[in-house]
Amino acid sequence: MPEMPEKQSAITDLVLDLDNTLWDWVGMHIPALEAMAWFVSDQAGVPLEIVKASMAKVYRQAGTHEYTPLVQNMDILAPLLETKAGVMKLIGIVLGAQETYDAHREKNLALYDGVPDVLNEIHGMGVRMHVISDAPKYKALSRIKLTGIEQFFTSLHAKPDPCESELPEYVAAKQAAGQFQVPFPVGEVPNGKPDIDLGGLLGIPPDDVKNSVAVIGDSLPKDMGLARRNNCLGILASYGNPTAEQVEHLLRFGTRDSERLKHMPLSNELVRLIQETRIHVLERVRDLPAFLKSIQ
């Protein structure tokens, strides 16, 4: 990693979310979900809407769309477990669905306009950038590598990967080949946001967290909740709000992830959080370096 230059802001450490903060997660996730549903429908011979309803049931139980063992837990596929031939067919559906999802996700993964320049400028200001993600480690690393921004970060902390038996074989192969290697330490946050002690995680004294750390992300309960828990500056990435059409699309898959994506400009929750927390609402990612420089 390049040597850090002299700082130009009172903020020394910036904690970043990834999805809907650096790239359009919703725009990448929806077509991947649809492609996976079509694949399962075709391979299992089950109507598409029934497949989607079964997917939604699993997602609701898991509480997140970042759930790798989705297909093998779908109730409509349970009858395949009754015979050896059915089990082999289920394995094929699971592997094919995972590869279909990941292929469409990678195809549609795109940084928000200007993100590489923004990260480069912030790095040039001497600000250390730490990623904290609620995605499993391999997904966060894969997306960082695919977008080519790994050179800017100081550390990454993400959810633990699934157990070896639930990790897709092609992902395990990529790990073994070193395709997820990055030039910074990678750790785990089993409990996820917002219940993280940033001082303990990053090795920063509490007073320094309060005065020198900022958290940027699109989620009020998770990212701004993390800022409130640590009594530090929160930067709400309002540019990451999905469209009403995207929200309705995700709501058909019915998870709490979808509920939190609802666009709430100046909602009561946002007003309350702004009153209780130091929050700056950022409408364009390109404005982030200038805002950080304004903090002295």
Question: TL;DR?
Answer:
With 296 residues, the chain is of the alpha/beta class.
**Helix-residue proportion:** 40-55%
The neighbouring-strand order within the major sheet is 4-3-2-1-5-6-7
- Morphology call: elongated
User: Structural class of the secondary elements?
Assistant: alpha/beta
Q: Summarize the helix and strand pattern as letters.
A: EHHHHEHEHEHHEHEHHHEH
* Overall pLDDT level: 86
Description:
There is one protein chain. The chain has 13 helices and 7 strands. With 296 residues, it is α/β, with parallel strands linked by helices. 38% of the residues are buried. It starts with 12 loop residues before the first strand and ends with a helix.
Could you list some keywords that capture this structure?
296 residues, alpha/beta, elongated
How is the secondary structure organized here?
Layout: E1 13-16, H1 25-44, H2 48-62, H3 84-108, H4 115-124, E2 128-136, H5 137-147, E3 155-159, H6 169-176, E4 186-188, H7 198-202, H8 206-212, E5 213-217, H9 220-229, E6 233-237, H10 244-251, H11 256-260, H12 268-276, E7 279-282, H13 288-293
Parallel strand pairs: 1-2, 1-5, 2-3, 3-4, 5-6, 6-7
